[in-house]
Amino acid sequence: MEHFTAELFVAGSALAQDWFLLLPLPVILLANWHERRRSCRSEGPATAVADLIWPVLVLIALSAALLGFLLGFLLYAADPAHAGPRPGLFAAVMVATAAAAGAVTRRGVRGRLARLLPIDPDSALDASALVLALVTVGYQLANQLAVDVLTRPAGFQPLGVPDMIAQEVPFLLAAFCGVGLFLRRSLGEARRRLGWVRPSPWQILLALAAAGLFYAFGSGADFLTHLLTPATAHRLDAVDQRLFGNLRGPGGIAVLALSAGICEETLFRGAIQPRLGLFVAALVFAALHTEYGLTLDEVAVFVLALGLGLVRRLTNTTSSIVCHVVYDALVAVGVGGVWLAGALAVEVGLVLVSLAAYFTGRLAPSDPARAAGGPDRT
Questions:
Q1: Domain check: are 205 and 281 in the same one?
Q2: At what angle do helices 124-146 and 2-14 cross, to 10 degrees?
Q3: Is position 169 within any domain?
Q4: How far is CA 40 from CA 52, 189, 373, in A?
Q5: Is residue 80 part of a domain?
Q6: pLDDT, position 34
Q7: What confidence score (pLDDT) does residue 289 get?
Q8: Does residue 165 lie within any of the structural domains?
Q9: pLDDT interval class at 9 (50, 70, 90)
Q10: In whole angstroms, what is the distance from residue 197 CA to residue 200 CA?
Q11: What DSSP string describes 304-339?
Q12: Quick one: 49 and 108 in the same domain?
């Protein structure tokens, strides 16, 4: 029973993407319907249906609290003699999450949050995005506090090429549904809202320079992890090998980099960041990369997400996709030995050219929804 319940928590961490991205799709569609009705100022039977979004959001908040008590009880029942405070901590975090999610369904609370975040207090779509973001981050935090997933690398199943694609495609679907594809926008309008535009050569150079800087930062964070917490670093290496060991060939690396870069950037930097802001988008991104546990690597993921958000804000989502793809490829292949000096020279050149382009105005953004609160955020 203990093994089963711990694996349940591990599986919940690994499958949180599916839970977050697929199950709430009806809520996202309903919120888009409400947004369309509000923008058209229409009344009638459809209005009452669209307004169901508010009790649905309250129900999601209540469900988060119930989930905390249920899974906390299962964890305690697995091994009451050694459970300690963890089941209670899981439930407490989920109850706090539910309270926060319920609070943002109130217009007054959203009005105060609008001073910090680029949200519209009257938007049901913004309220839905906030509720789902809070529940996702809260669940992942509670899950990490309840079970140390790094002690059970066997709980992570090796990913093949089909698995990687199947894991990433829901991000893409959620992004297009989130911006109201075929409900409020045509395919072309949704693409532009998500920042899928043709980048300029200068923007591509910036993306490449940023990818190199991110790789250096990630390598430094990995070095610190091995230096300061060698036991944790060993477990992280085991999890990494367990997850991605089947994707070490050229084809696997290409699929990993392209699928993660395209699908994740489209959702987090294309759909979420213009609506909830750079910080919240980065926080949700880090929360969904829980294979690293509560470690320095997880902090590094959050910092890298902020960096990708800055690339998107300065340019467009296409450029942040290029940056993400190149970064993942660099991590998978590695840069060292005889290649290191050449790579450093190229990186210095890219950084200098990017700085020159920035200060001379050549990095002019090419999509209107690039920044949080941009004119096309809705």
A1: yes
A2: 140
A3: no
A4: 18, 17, 21
A5: yes
A6: 86
A7: 84
A8: no
A9: very low
A10: 9
A11: HHHHHHHHHHHS-HHHHHHHHHHHHHHHHH---TTH
A12: yes
